[in-house]
Amino acid sequence: MxxxxxxxxxxxxxxxxxxxxxxxxxxxxxxxxPVLDFEQASGRTGTSAVQDIVRQIDTLGLKxxxxxxTHVHADHLSAxxxxxxxxxxxxxxxxxxxxxxVQKVFGALFAVPTQADGAxxxxxxxxxxxxxxxxxxxxxxxxxxxxxxxxxxxxxxxLFVGDTMFMPDFGTARCDFPGGDAAxxxxxxxxxxxxPDQTRMLMCHDYGAPGRxxxxxxxxxxxxxxxxxxxxxxxxxxxFVALRTTRxxxxxxxxxxxxxxxxxxxxxxxxxxxxxxxxxxxxPLNQF
Length: 288
Prior knowledge:
Blueprint: E1 4-11, E2 16-23, E3 28-32, E4 35-39, E5 44-46, H1 48-60, E6 63-68, E7 77-78, H2 80-86, E8 92-96, H3 99-110, E9 123-125, E10 130-133, E11 136-142, E12 151-155, E13 158-160, H4 182-193, E14 200-202, E15 218-220, H5 221-227, H6 237-248, H7 257-264
Parallel strand pairs: 3-6, 6-8, 8-9, 13-14
Antiparallel strand pairs: 1-2, 2-3, 4-5, 4-7, 10-11, 11-12, 12-13, 14-15
Helix pairs in contact: 4-6
């Protein structure tokens, strides 16, 4: 019998799925990829999206052990820090251990103080690391390519893949961000394809697809292997790299890339206030 249950939360402003997963007996829980409200025009932040998760944690009587990020997101601000505070401050915030590479690159770009040592994340997770969740476990799978720090989380037959893949009719993640690489992404996907076909794959984003206007967040390894428009049907690495590279050259930068990365590479912590008590996000000019 499955030990785990989960709930899905969708933020329509960023097309992001967040997940609350818990072990049924112990009530130990994990949240994956929480979203902070952010209105770019006014610079206003808020916690309404993550408050929905907090209410469910309280209603179900759960104990939040972990807040896990699949990568440094470029399309929304992380609510990891806010969620930790809202739930008592004891949950550990984790991400893949290659976060140090991301911090080094973007710390230099934004000229912000950083040791590029993974702080302030509580957990830097290596490939095949195991986290206990009551009687269940969370297995960490390093799946770089979209970014160097991308990881997927396997819990029983549930696989949370971040931006590594999308629904079969939408394809795969872009690889043109700093540290991204299409060949590396292909190999990460093949690593996931080695899992049983019935493994349930949960998306971080969905933007709809031609002929499918509704958003969707769940498919299977088997469905991806046979039907993914970028990498299914046994597409070769060389063909995938050519397809992905050509497609990436046509894509515009995500509108929240610069605000998001500054916050997300620091576990969702907002920049420190200046002498006037106001926090600021930087906008580097002519760098992309």
